[in-house]
Design brief:
The protein has one domain: Gcn5-related N-acetyltransferase (GNAT) (Aminopeptidase, 3-Layer(aba) Sandwich), CATH 3.40.630.30. It is 30% helix and 35% strand. The chain is built from 5 helices and 7 strands, in the order E-H-H-H-E-E-E-H-E-H-E-E. A hairpin with a 2-residue loop joins strand 3 and strand 4.
Length: 159
């Protein structure tokens, strides 16, 4: 299996149009599960993530292979916890990019503990977290917009 080494840089407003396209993929949206109510609403997406770029509690990085944007990764705070989230363009899945990007991200984002939440059936993302040292703590249930149903999610923690 080929493993590619991505690089990270702070996300710029110009990146958002590309990142918006990634989340339109139906399979990727399904696996992510906890997505926006309407992934087709570009205006809402751009408004939300433009606010995120100006929020000092959010560390949002764009994942690059050379000059090509292949995903995003971010740290945010919710309910008093620090969490991470990432999204890789589906055409780059299964190449080690998410794991490599998360390892690089954790080297620059030092907040610990940090949590990751993943749908119970998103095995790829579970493997990414585990490869990066996250330990599965338990489960939660939440409404998954992408599935229009309440589903189980696994909660992971690092540090």
């Amino acid at each position: 299996m080929q493993h590619l080494q991505p690089s990270l840089r702070p996300t710029e407003i110009a990146d958002l149009a590309v990142l918006f396209q990634f989340q339109l993929d139906k399979e990727a949206n399904y696996l992510a599960a906890f997505t926006s109510k309407d992934p087709l609403d570009k205006e809402a997406y751009l408004e939300k993530f433009t606010k995120h770029l100006n929020d000092p509690t959010i560390n949002m990085q764009t994942i690059l292979l050379g000059d090509t944007i292949v995903g995003s990764i971010a740290k945010f705070e919710t309910r008093g916890d620090t969490e991470i989230t990432y999204w890789i363009d589906k055409s780059y899945w299964r190449k080690g990019i998410a794991s490599a990007a998360l390892k690089s991200f954790l080297a620059i984002e030092k907040t610990r503990p940090v949590f990751g939440r993943v749908a119970f059936d998103n095995l790829g993302s579970q493997k990414v977290l585990e490869k990066c040292g996250f330990i599965r703590l338990g489960t939660d249930r939440g409404f998954a917009n992408a599935r229009q149903a309440e589903i189980e999610e696994f909660i992971y923690r690092l540090g």
